[in-house]
Amino acid sequence: EELKMSKMNNFDAQSTFCALCGRTDDCPEKYGEKRTYVEYNLTVHYYCLLMSSGIWQRGEEDEGVDGFLITDIRKEVNRAAKLKCNICKKKGASIGCVAPKCKRSYHFPCGLQRECIFQFMEDFRSYCWEHRPVQKFLDKEPRGASQCTICLDLVEHLPVYTVLKSPCCKTAWFHRECLQYQALSAGIFFFRCTVCNNKDKFQNEMLRMGIHIPERDASWELEENAYQELLHCYQHCDVKRCLCKKGRDYNEPDSKWEIKRCQYCGSRGTHLACSSMKSWEQNWECMECRSIFAKSGKYSKRKKRALAACENTNGTPCLLEEPPPKSPRQSSGAPRNFLLQSPKIMSQNLSPCSHLELPASNRVTMSLSPVVSNRSRPLRHKHLREQRREASNILKELKVQVKTKTTRLNINAENIWSSALKGFRQRIFSPTNTIEVNFSNYKNRSKTDTCASKHHFFQLLMLHLQNSSLFEGSSGKNLSLDFQAVKENLYFEAGKMIAVSLVHGGPSPGFFSKTLFDCLVYGPENVKPTLEDVADVDVAQTIKTIKDANSLSSLQSTLQDCCEFLAAAGCLRPVTALCDKDMLVHDILMYHVIKRISLPLESFRQGLETLGVLEKMQLHPDVFSSILCHKPERLSAETVCDLFTIHSSSDVNKLKGAGFWLGYLQDVQNGESVVTMEDILLFVTGSCYIPSIGFDPEPTIKFLHIRYPIANRPLNCLELPVTKTYQQFKNKMELTIRNTLRVEME
């Protein structure tokens, strides 16, 4: 034992020779990680092993050296010992050129020195200096030099080994060494063209030309809690006199003690009650921001209120306008639902479709849109229902791609975005795998709740995206311009998440503006934006002032005041007639709404291509507009009744039970129950919304001789008791649903 320990101590990794190339160099960037296995008396460079011609990974990932069995490695060392390197003339040349009739062999370091190409993909082929692949250079391509967009030094436009050009951008040239360092740092998820952000075409060409792209996350993503401080939300009441008895740091969502942050800086806050705010939707500015705007002459509450009124009057009509995201979950005419009143859940607004719509006989008439009349609204609703049914059928066609192989996502509900991003970017994640969700901060969750967890996850994720900095606007949202998000490729991830959510049973997003949807479907060059698409209050006011100018002098005066803005938009030009303002407004809108966000839009489009969703959107624009641009229909007794198919052991039980069931749904809708439609749906299916793709399997009801209702969530089956009176039926329903959901929340 002492002799063995002595040998291990004398086994110095720095001085050991690689068994394949015979070198002691420890340079991971060039030769891969140098690995020493004391128990096998073996040292190898990872790239030397990976590129050797006579060895394959016959084991599992945790066997031998990343799947290369020790016996196979020794056989390969013995085979290479008989081959002489055509470069250094020493034995041990384990790598051969794959070109037909070429018999050159060499060590991996020698091959690099002699400018051979090693392809880190598929069969891990190697090409000698004579047969290596080259990039095509057209005669008409300009010669000379340009900046390498990575190191910013000059790179000559020459067909040489040390220079690579982008396959997707004619003006992008790189040093090979710069690209290799970039690839090692960014990994397979973030390595892309630095000019146009293209990923697939760029990576394929670089792999062909010998750039190694490791299958791991980016180096900056591997640092634990690297961006933790960016996820912290300011929660402190800063007004001079705080009225909350529990202190300035107390925050209770959906109450008068909820903390509202400054709409401009976000670094100051107030309780709603402390600033006499009636609802969370009201804007609030801290004293510092208010004083800054007052000094600049841009601050005017009256102007903002007038502009908001203008937006409400002239906005794009939304057929199923929902209450704002912060509205409490409550049935029409019913007390606020106390079953799902967990502060954590309420703060995330888990039920965007929780406000019930009464039947036509006693429906409360609401002004959903000034454009849509009361007479046309039922027809619009019916049309949307038909479109959503068609969307469900199309999504079911796309779901055929999903395999039974599962991918598990470990999600923290309190940090939904970063944990979802980590899950979607993990190497083993595939959109075609069945997704299982495990909430790391929910204890004692049973295995039967896996479907409920997935519904819950997609709902939280869609709500986060809707309110994230990637989008801007009130109800119908457009993409914003966030340079950090562009750099981190978050727009692509957002599009991918929405596509995956639609196919895997998530909710209808429902927050796309018509302009954003048309840009995705018809292309930005075919879209004409409107003033309602401008989310920035000051920019919208500037455009409106130009649009409303009634004389040439007032127009020129307005343009003079905002010349810096016009110059930044590329719209600064002499105006000689009042009619010129129409073209000017059009150009400003095109810049601010579309051209300015061209990079985010392209990235978002690529994400939506996942599972073929974008292609279906372009083939069926009206159908997908119903789930992407319109809020989900509020659950009603009719909707829930149509959702379930009733089965029973006898026609008598079926007829009597169906009557009790319909009567109960009507009571719930009318607010004569302690539960809501969402609670019923959640009790049966584990979801408080109807997925865009529908439920699988379709929900059913069975009337049985049992004491209390039973929900079989894996089958979406509701087993109901056969009772003598309706009151018995109602009492059992309310007791079971209320207690079940309360226990689940606790």
Automatic annotation (TrEMBL):
It comes from the Eukaryota. SUPFAM superfamilies: FYVE/PHD zinc finger, Hect, E3 ligase catalytic domain. GO terms for cellular component: nucleus. Its main location: nucleus. One of its GO terms (molecular function) is ubiquitin-protein transferase activity. Keywords: Ligase, Metal-binding, Nucleus, Transferase, Ubl conjugation pathway, Zinc, Zinc-finger. Pathway: Protein modification; protein ubiquitination. It is found in: Nucleus. Residues 15-132 form the PHD-type domain. This is G2E3 ligase. The lineage of its organism: Eukaryota, Metazoa, Chordata, Craniata, Vertebrata.
